[in-house]
Amino acid sequence: MQTIRLFFLALLVCLGTAHTVQAAPFVSPHGYSITPAPGWAVNKSGMMGADVIIYTRAVGGFAPNLDVVITPTKLGQTLEQAQAEVTKGYSELLPQGKLVRTGYETVDNVRGLVVVGTYLQGVQRLAGYEVIVIKHGKAYTFVGVVPEALQARYAPAFAQMLRSVRWSR
Length: 169
Description:
Blueprint: H1 2-18, E1 26-27, E2 32-34, E3 41-43, E4 52-55, E5 65-72, H2 79-93, E6 98-107, E7 110-121, E8 124-135, E9 138-147, H3 151-164, E10 166-167
Antiparallel strand pairs: 1-2, 2-10, 3-4, 4-5, 5-9, 6-7, 7-8, 8-9
């Protein structure tokens, strides 16, 4: 009986610590690293112009994902200018796009523009959560996309991944 209790105690301890084990960070040659949420996979193939796509199992026909896209900025471009462009063009650029809010937050102590909105992709109503950071003449855009109905479920994973970002230059 004592052996069974010790076995279950050891099992509980292992299960209790299993969820805290972090995946290895993806280290980009473009000056940052990001750690996937537990159980999420990494695609660094460059597909769809992304430096990296971090994704999890499909739910309702769509795989929630966080992509990092890096693009050059215009000389002297500011986050305020980016916010004005996003606000003006969100519904024009995305089918049935609706800008929910914009604001600011930091990514590893660098100020970023937050853009939250919804749009239609095929028959899927999706929610997008973007954080755009301008650094060294480049815009680093962290884009989390999930079916709109599952936003609350995946928000902690997106937040954890953004908190994990570290700039190396």
